[in-house]
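Sequence dictates fold. Next comes a concrete instance:
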Amino acid sequence: MSTITETNQRTVTPFRYDIVGSFLRPPALKAARLKFQAGELTADQLRKVEDAEIIQLVHKQQEVGLQAVTDGEFRRSWWHLDFFWGLDGVKRTIIEQGYRFNGAESRPETARLTGKLGYSNHPFVADFAFLQSTVGENTVARQSIPAAAQFLFELDRVENKASTQAIYPDRAELLADIAKAYQGAILALYNAGCRSLQIDDCTWGALCDEQFIVIMTQAGVDLATYAEELASLNEAVVSGLPEDLVVTTHVCRGNYVSTYAGVGGGYEPIAEQLLGIDRYAGFYLEYDTDRAGDFQPLRFLKDHQQVVLGLFSSKFGELEDKEAILQRIEEARQYVDLDRICLSPQCGFASTEEGNHLTEEQQWRKLAFIREIAEEIWG
């Protein structure tokens, strides 16, 4: 197959070759965290190790050519729970069972309400300020947070439902307080200099998963109504934000120690609700396997929106077949113009601190490979 060539550079996120955000934790960071948990390091000492590793990570991201960089989520244990725990009225809670993946189960932790939700401060703000101080003038510092819909999803878990309803018998009040707390956190990040915000969201991956659809339908849940509620909540959070804050979202289908969640299913059942959120400038969508279905749902994209095709797996280190990738891009072009397409791995390399089953060398080689293909296409 001949390579498509089109010159169309981008100056804001998402960029032509991009990342979802998390990176494998280096050995020095893992060792320091274990020492901290054992009481052998103070919080300040741990933070100094994190600072040093983040500085190295930023340099490596710049060396591989990334225009938007993250702190790799090096200060987090989870891609989502750490953010929830930083909101007022939320506590870290140990439960009997973790999240279930294909052949694996995570640590049994959750976020549970202890009182009314709110925002007063959040550790992510200082974390972002440090990242911003390391990137220089020609690189964008990107902050990722879990979606408000994801937070509601967590509070709706069987283990949390009773405590959620006890504090918020009025569902409308719960939704309003989630949106208000989230906007407080986002505006604090904005005031710290954030101009690129990525909202990570597993709820849409669940709502188009064939297995999840059956389970929820049998439980009496009206999935169409629930999808509208989730979309409305996400939209309430991003509405009215400063115009120069670029907001994108990543739809995840499970990413834990190189495994996934559910059995799969195309985006079609939720495409209109998801892609209908006008404030989202870009959608990072997983398309690394046939579990994600075809590209037809991309027809709902608006003219001002980009799609970042996650055609490359962050779950294994082997490189994909270049001709197969180019063929997939040609298929996507049937529904969306090439100038509105970008490329990235399907997810981060370490959505939790355990990380996926590949080496750091393979991680960087994969990103270099994505850049190579993007430069062949867009110059």
